[in-house]
Amino acid sequence: MTITRGNFRLKVVEGEFTDSQIIVMLRENGTGKTTFLHMLAGLLKPDSVEGSDMEIPKFNFSYKQERIGIKLEFECIVEMLLCEKIPDAIRNPHFLSNVFEPLLIRKLMDKELGDLSAGELQKVALTLCLGKPADIYPINEPSTYLDSEQCIVASTNTSRPRIK
Ligand SMILES: Nc1ncnc2c1ncn2[C@@H]1O[C@H](COP(=O)(O)OP(=O)(O)OP(=O)(O)O)[C@@H](O)[C@H]1O
Known about the structure:
Blueprint: E1 2-5, E2 8-11, H1 33-40, H2 78-85, H3 93-100, H4 118-130, H5 148-157
Antiparallel strand pairs: 1-2
Adenosine-5'-triphosphate binds next to α1.
Protein name: ABC transporter E member 2
Domain ABC transporter: 11-143
């Protein structure tokens, strides 16, 4: 199938993945990584082709957008946001030890979203994404704005099995 955005056309061929598999997409800027993730997550529709029976399988996605902060309510305390959006996850010991604590979210809990640094906001966005039960977690730009230590934490701890 293909998907067209202005002058850009991405051709997607059928592939496979298994449970608990981590797939990393690394390509130059503007080669269609975000377009592909948006298509997978159902945010963009592929071009329709007459007679084609190829469909994107239906999965539950928890997607972390490339541009963080756009959909977050800025006059909100981090703790309130997490309690509202991922109430089960933040009481789950597995999530706390694999995501919440390694990303050092506890020390951000009483801060307003609007006061967070870009890296802190990125970590809250990752926590929100990973705290939602889903089949697939497309994470766009997981390490942007993170310091080197937190880049390693984000790539190791956030890829461990999570709550279902
Ligand atoms: N709404 C749009 N209208 C026209 N062209 C678009 C639109 N959105 C994206 N594109 C183009 O599609 C191409 C792929 O963009 P995409 O965001 O998928 O790339 P990417 O691989 O995620 O890039 P990056 O690594 O820079 O984040 C780019 O050339 C971009 O300019």
